[in-house]
Fold this sequence. Notes:
This protein is mainly α. The chain has helices spanning about 1-20, 25-50.
Amino acid sequence: MAGKGDQAKGKVKKVVGGAVGNESLKVKGKAEERKGDLRAAKEKAKDAIKPK
């Protein structure tokens, strides 16, 4: 669940940074969004290998 939150926050920062012309905020948003992608993939992998 934390991965989805990081993805959402990152997307917002990226869009706002692009809208106001703040390149630093845009880059931070991209990084946070990717962090969320990785975290979500990790969670998905953990769920896939859990014994049922």
